[in-house]
Amino acid sequence: MNTQSPLPAPGAPLQHYVSIAPFDLQSVEAMTPEQSKVFQASQLRLMWWKFRKHRLALISGIFLAVLYFGILISEFLAPYNLHTRNMDYIYSPPQQVHLFRNGEFVGPFVYGRQMKLDMDTLKRNYIENQDDVQRLRFFCKGDSYQFWGLIEGDRHFVCPAENGQLFLAGTDRLGRDVLSRMIYGARISLTIGLVGISFSFLLGIFIGGLAGYHGGIFDLVVQRIIEVLQSIPSIPLWLALAAIMPITWSPILIYFGITVILGLLDWTGLARAVRSKLLALREEDYVLAAQLMGAGSSRIIRRHLIPGFMSHLIATATLSIPGMILGETALSFLGLGLRAPITSWGILLTEARSVSVIAFYPWLLLPMLPVILVIMAFNFLGDGLRDAADPYK
């Protein structure tokens, strides 16, 4: 049986089996709106969608954003001025805020206190006076201050009652409000991590980038220097570098000196991460194309290689900031870091170096709480950024 189609008659038009309609990519792909949204999304949007699923990292990011916004208005948030002394309330324990009294809503208030000295132990005991109701004031006038050392002001978010007291975290040996000093100290402790990681970031990318891209003798020398620096115990190295700074330096110079020390100690790990990435990426075809077009080494590293793993660098930097905050806290606690009149969380913890002080006045350890919370938040945030760095996984 012949299954072949008959040949067309001579001169007859040929039959076309291919559509001559305009090609419509959307009709061929037939993507749903959800699929189109994903396939056409940018890398940054994909990272945000992946990061948003990490609830703990998202909450940590919001918490850190609130803290860093708070350091911009520390003078407004603190109930008292940084140097205000309440000599009648030395070593006063934290006060509790109440809302109800005798079953009736009164609003946020604290009870007044009276101090009695224990003649046997010479300990100050504070007794609440249930009849002295001191309602808190909000957006009120209080201690005067200089906003960022430039503008005079006296407005506070919360203030004690007129002729009252408000010590939510207690007071120290000079009668200074611990909560206010913690709020002021956050400005130093939080920014020293950012400034230090910026210095370490630039140093690590520059040295690690050159070592990974060029290799050879320069890479060998850099690796040996990194190994030597990483083999030295961190605490003795901190002590040696901190001892170099003259005691005659101003607090601002001490601040930047500690920042440089932390940056010098932290760049080695980042430099090795950059080097390992560049060793893999420098063999890609687009690097060869850039070289053939006459691009220099610095341009290739800056414009083509580093953006390829910038998300990983951001995650690494986020995980390095807690180490710098701990480093500043440790140096200041040992008396080798920042010094008064600068206030940081490490300096506040120096008030609790004595065992007897901790036994009688344990609230002086409260500045340790924000250190723990901030370090945990940065770790969770870095974990979320690391997962979001490759949204296709």
UniProtKB/TrEMBL annotation:
<protein>
    <submittedName>
        <fullName>ABC transporter permease</fullName>
    </submittedName>
</protein>
<dbReference type="InterPro" id="IPR000515">
    <property type="entry name" value="MetI-like"/>
</dbReference>
<feature type="transmembrane region" description="Helical">
    <location>
        <begin position="360"/>
        <end position="381"/>
    </location>
</feature>
<feature type="transmembrane region" description="Helical">
    <location>
        <begin position="188"/>
        <end position="213"/>
    </location>
</feature>
<keyword id="KW-1133">Transmembrane helix</keyword>
<feature type="transmembrane region" description="Helical">
    <location>
        <begin position="253"/>
        <end position="274"/>
    </location>
</feature>
<dbReference type="Pfam" id="PF12911">
    <property type="entry name" value="OppC_N"/>
</dbReference>
<dbReference type="GO" id="GO:0055085">
    <property type="term" value="P:transmembrane transport"/>
</dbReference>
<keyword id="KW-0472">Membrane</keyword>
<dbReference type="Pfam" id="PF00528">
    <property type="entry name" value="BPD_transp_1"/>
</dbReference>
<keyword id="KW-0813">Transport</keyword>
<dbReference type="InterPro" id="IPR035906">
    <property type="entry name" value="MetI-like_sf"/>
</dbReference>
<dbReference type="InterPro" id="IPR025966">
    <property type="entry name" value="OppC_N"/>
</dbReference>
<feature type="domain" description="ABC transmembrane type-1">
    <location>
        <begin position="186"/>
        <end position="382"/>
    </location>
</feature>
<feature type="transmembrane region" description="Helical">
    <location>
        <begin position="305"/>
        <end position="325"/>
    </location>
</feature>
<feature type="transmembrane region" description="Helical">
    <location>
        <begin position="56"/>
        <end position="78"/>
    </location>
</feature>
<keyword id="KW-0812">Transmembrane</keyword>
<dbReference type="GO" id="GO:0005886">
    <property type="term" value="C:plasma membrane"/>
</dbReference>
<comment type="similarity">
    <text>Belongs to the binding-protein-dependent transport system permease family.</text>
</comment>
